[in-house]
Design a protein that fits this description.
Layout lengths: L3 E4 L12 E4 L1 H14 L7 H10 L1 E2 L5
Antiparallel strand pairs: 1-2, 1-3
Helix pairs in contact: 1-2
Length: 63
């Protein structure tokens, strides 16, 4: 299974967040959603989860 990556550095934020999360898709989605809610004050909605899922990238080999 290809690991997925969520990288906050690719999305501008007031805090200039540098967090990167990698793992299996559902793990990354869960952790990235928790991060978005607790750090960036987003509301945990199905729309947020869909948006995060759409931003996930495949982890590059050797990462």
């Amino acid at each position: 299974m290809t690991r997925k990556v969520a990288d906050c550095r690719k999305y501008p934020s007031e805090s200039n967040c540098t967090l990167t999360i990698a793992g299996e898709e559902e793990e990354v989605l869960r952790a990235a959603t928790q991060h978005a809610v607790s750090v960036h004050q987003h509301e945990d909605t199905p729309e947020l989860r869909d948006q995060i899922r759409g931003m996930l990238e495949d982890e590059k080999a050797g990462s």
